[in-house]
């Protein structure tokens, strides 16, 4: 027996369009639903701006307090740490620097055992660095390339803060003398390493577009703080960073090419204390043909500090309002018998549910998109006006946050709608949706759960979608407190949003299946 299709594709499309228009009409005619969605958007904006207005910060400048300076930025606008001791000279045109690193030592400040006694021990943190560098200028954030030995990651070549390449011929535990070379040819810089200064292995190359003819070339050392993460009183994690320094001792220093002028010593980015004296300054000590360079700080992307998404802290409250509206929108048809009218127009319940979900999702997205944009932009301006140093984010990243958060609201509304149609009990559906989306996020981003449990929640629950608001990525070559409580999520933004979308699709499918069983 042959079957006759319900209708052609065009006819089905027109039917679905009529259903979508009917659901939109149904939604906008109930003023309470419209008002609740608008209220969700206003709550997100209001709580975000209120939180930003209450956040104040200042930094000492001698006897007075001033607004904290923004972090150094690259020419492309990325916030960076650029603090190191630099022994350097000019290089005009092509050239190279070759050195032998004879030793690398350091000091680490540990938690004090006895009150009033500084607990400092010898050692190197994993990403302590000492080596050679070519840098556009001594300005913080200026482009650079460097070849270095590290505390625990062997020989590396790094450039422009975010790029890191591993050398392959020296174990991190091998502290015998090591030869390093960095050569420039136009905008291309190439790094090499050698065990004896005769046989060289290429590490990699870096292309620094627009590198001027005259640059700075020399030796450097730096050492990021020692990061310790402990359990807090409430069960979460608490991170602390303590002073460290690294000393690289070099000899056989040779600069090839045109290098006018003399050697200079600069403590790039050194912190100035309240009395005007440098705080934990670096230094260079020369003895015979050797120079020992000691540095404090790091040369890497900035991953700690207030971020552009900070004003979005009120989003979970707005999300609760959206959930309530979505569940009521689904349950109203059954409570008031409106489902019979819907089925007269479209006998297929699954198609009617899809139209309802799409209508609600579009309404929610349209309402929360401008709300998120206003919160992000205006909240950031308020934070900076209050003296806070906010880590900048590229424009495309900010657009992704705004669009992603609006999509989060929309998908959460669809999930709540599907739960309302599936459970047929408004209170149960609201509680289930909040428990699945909002509660895991709150638990994971406060000091309640251990870090492992927080990471797990943000992988397997719909709350994974909050990853769309993360503006600062994780970097393998930067030691940081990459925890939800610090604003870092275990999944990439798109993957986190996909988890929520999968839950919404699953719930909608189960609800449609239940409706089809009723038809049968």
Describe the structure.
Strands 4, 5, 6, 7, 8, 9, 10, 11, 12, 13, 16, 17, 20 and 21 form a 14-stranded antiparallel beta sheet that branches. Strands 1-2 form a two-stranded antiparallel ribbon. It starts with 8 loop residues before the first helix and ends with a helix. It contains 9 helices and 24 strands. The chain has helices spanning 9-29, 31-53, 315-336, 338-345, 349-385, 395-423, 426-444, 451-460, 493-519, and strands spanning 59-61, 64-66, 80-82, 84-110, 119-122, 129-135, 144-150, 155-159, 163-166, 178-185, 188-194, 201-207, 214-222, 226-231, 237-242, 244-258, 264-268, 271-272, 278-279, 283-287, 290-295, 299-301, 306-307, 390-391. It is α+β, with helices and mostly antiparallel strands and 520 residues long.
Write the layout of secondary structure elements.
Blueprint: H1 9-29, H2 31-53, E1 59-61, E2 64-66, E3 80-82, E4 84-110, E5 119-122, E6 129-135, E7 144-150, E8 155-159, E9 163-166, E10 178-185, E11 188-194, E12 201-207, E13 214-222, E14 226-231, E15 237-242, E16 244-258, E17 264-268, E18 271-272, E19 278-279, E20 283-287, E21 290-295, E22 299-301, E23 306-307, H3 315-336, H4 338-345, H5 349-385, E24 390-391, H6 395-423, H7 426-444, H8 451-460, H9 493-519
Helix pairs in contact: 1-5, 2-3, 2-5, 3-6, 3-7, 5-6, 5-9, 6-7, 6-9, 7-8
């Amino acid at each position: 027996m042959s079957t006759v299709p319900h209708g052609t594709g065009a006819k089905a499309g027109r039917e679905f369009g009529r259903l979508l228009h009917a659901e939109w009409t149904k939604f906008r005619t109930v003023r309470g639903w419209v008002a609740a969605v608008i209220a969700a958007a206003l709550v997100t904006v209001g709580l975000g701006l209120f939180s930003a207005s209450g956040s104040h910060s200042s930094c000492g400048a001698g006897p007075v307090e001033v607004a904290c300076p923004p972090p150094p930025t690259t020419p492309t606008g990325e916030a960076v740490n650029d603090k190191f001791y630099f022994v350097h000279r000019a290089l005009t045109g092509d050239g190279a620097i070759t050195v032998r690193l004879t030793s690398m030592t350091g000091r680490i400040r540990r938690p004090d055992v006895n009150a009033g006694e500084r607990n400092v021990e010898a050692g190197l943190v994993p990403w302590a660095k000492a080596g050679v560098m070519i840098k556009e200028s001594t300005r913080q954030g200026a482009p650079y390339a460097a070849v270095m030995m590290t505390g625990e990651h062997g020989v590396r070549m790094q450039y422009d803060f975010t790029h890191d390449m591993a050398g392959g011929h020296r174990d991190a535990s091998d502290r015998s003398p090591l030869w390093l070379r960095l050569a420039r040819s136009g905008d291309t810089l190439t790094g090499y390493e050698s065990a004896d200064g005769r046989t060289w292995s290429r590490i990699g190359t870096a292309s620094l577009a627009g590198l001027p003819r005259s640059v700075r070339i020399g030796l450097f050392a730096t050492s990021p703080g020692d990061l310790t993460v402990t359990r807090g009183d409430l069960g979460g994690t608490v991170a602390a960073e303590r002073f460290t320094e690294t000393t690289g001792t070099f000899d056989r220093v040779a600069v090839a090419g045109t290098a006018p002028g003399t050697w200079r010593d600069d403590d790039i980015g050194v912190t100035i204390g309240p009395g005007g004296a440098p705080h934990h300054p670096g230094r260079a000590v020369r003895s015979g043909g050797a120079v020992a360079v000691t540095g404090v700080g790091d040369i890497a992307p900035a991953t700690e500090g207030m971020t552009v998404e900070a004003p979005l802290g009120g989003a979970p409250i707005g999300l609760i309002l959206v959930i309530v509206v979505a569940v009521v929108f689904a349950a109203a048809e059954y409570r008031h018998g409106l489902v019979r009218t819907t089925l007269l127009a479209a006998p297929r319940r699954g198609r009617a549910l899809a139209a309802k979900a799409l209508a609600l999702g579009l309404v929610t997205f349209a309402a929360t998109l401008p709300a998120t944009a206003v919160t992000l932009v205006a909240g950031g301006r308020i934070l900076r006006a209050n003296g806070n140093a906010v880590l900048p984010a590229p424009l495309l990243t900010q657009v992704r946050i705004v669009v992603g958060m609006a999509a989060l609201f929309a998908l959460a509304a669809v999930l709540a709608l599907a739960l309302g149609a599936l459970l047929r009990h408004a209170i149960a559906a609201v509680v289930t949706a909040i428990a699945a989306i909002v509660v895991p996020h709150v638990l994971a981003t406060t000091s309640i759960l251990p870090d492992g449990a927080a990471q797990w929640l943000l992988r397997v629950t719909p709350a994974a979608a909050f990853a769309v608001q993360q503006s600062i990525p994780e970097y393998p070559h930067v030691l940081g407190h990459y925890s939800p409580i610090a604003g870092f999520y275990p999944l990439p933004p798109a993957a986190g949003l996909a988890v929520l979308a999968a839950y919404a699709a699953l719930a909608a499918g189960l609800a449609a299946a239940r409706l089809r069983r009723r038809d049968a």
